[in-house]
Every structure is written in C-alpha cells, then in structure tokens.
Give the backbone structure.
Amino acid sequence: MRFLPTLLLLLFAGVLAAQPNEDADVARARLELLRVQGLVDSGALPRAQLDKAQAAVQDAEDTALLRKNVYQQDLTEDQADAMVAAAVRQMDRRKQAFDEAKQLVETGAAPQVSLSTVLMDLDYARKELELAETRARLAREVTQMAEMEVTLETRLQQSPAEALKIAERYDGDGIFNPRILAKLESAYAARFGRPLPITANGETAVHRALGFDHRGRVDVGVHPDQPEGVWLRQYLMQNRIPFFAFRQAVPGKATGAHIHLGPISPLLAR
C-alpha cells in the first residue's frame, strides 16, 4: 500500500483547495476524482475509471450551474448562454446513459425495469434544457431592450430630434413609483386577464454591465402598436405616467420593442 501516503496527500490538498461557497456535490465529485486519480496512478484501477470520475465532476459542475441560474431572473446574456451550454451537455450525457442502458436491455444483460430511472433522468434533463433556453431568450430580450435605451440616452444628449426616431417619448408629470406600478398591474390584469409582462424591474445585471442606472424604472415586453401596447400607452398618458415606447431595434440586433416606464435611465457615474 505504498501509494496510500500519496493518496492521502491528494485528498488533503483537495480539501484545502475547495472554495468556501463551492457546491457540495461539486466538492464531493472533485474529492472522488482525486481518490480515483491516486488509485489509477498506483495501478489499482483502470484508466477508464478516471475518465468516469472526470465526467462526474463536469456533470456536477453543470448541475450546480443550472441549479443556480435556471430560476434566476437577473441574468446577463453571457450567463444565460453558459447555462444553456451546461443544459445541452447534461442532456447529451443523459441521452448517452439511456442509450447504453437500452442496449443492455436489448441484449438481455439487464431487465426492462432498469430503464425507468435513466428515462426519468432523460426527461428531466429535456425539461431543464427547455427552461434554460426560455430563460436565455428572455435574457437576450432584456439585453436588446437595454441597448436600445443606452442608444436613446446618447441620442437625447446629442440630438433630441434624432431620438424621436428610436422611441416615442411622453414625460407626463415625471413621476413613477411602486404604487403607480401596482395600480397599472391591476388594471392590465383586469383588461387582458394575465399579468403585466415585466421584463426588467429596477436594476438588473444587464443594465449594470452596460453602465446604466435602471433603478426605479420598469420595462414591459409589449410592442407599442400591438393591442396590449396601444392600451398601455393610452393608460399611461391618461394617468400622466412618463414612458418611452420603443418600436425599432438597434441596428444589427433583433427586435427589442418594448415600453419603458419612468424617466430615461441615466448613465452610472464612472
């Protein structure tokens, strides 16, 4: 057992290297990888076991990333893309596990009932991928909307007339606050039978990344010329609530049409 001191040293190093906020499953997978590495180096385990341990670490990392981000509302576009990539990798691994289990059943090496667990895992991974893709689409939409507002803020400073080509502006009485938003949400739900489609409420990671102060502002994901958008603009004007209605996109971007509630967001102090 001359490899034991080396193995214990590896495990101790792994414990020291673990981050305080590291996901518990990731930490366990990494410690197991160190254990397997020591056994493979000593010749006690085949190389294939090391490959499996490395795959288990990546699976744990992807699962932790999804667990952290898939239900989080405040994501940047890069974070959303990383989340989808993790979901795709997880889906591929679950599909491979199912195919391998199915082959064992077909050759008579395993009972049919053994497929139930891997099939559930595959179905769960498919649903998680769909959810991740939905969250990523929302993150991209929020990014497009924020970029349009940055463009508008710049145009307002440089050429107010040009700014009107980007968005319809209504200053109202200049006041927008949570109480006004609550009344608006109730009125919208009563009119359309569904919640107001808010895409950004106050400060978000996207706005911070762009250097934009979005506190006290709200973005609503409706096109100004669709029935919901027409009703919303009329409601805002009737109640003298300031807004910017965006109809066109930033050049080279997909449409980010929306209605921004409240005054234009100022640039953050540098």
The radius of gyration is 26 Å. The longest helix spans residues 115-158. The CA atoms of residues 185 and 196 lie 6 Å apart. The chain has nine helices and five strands.
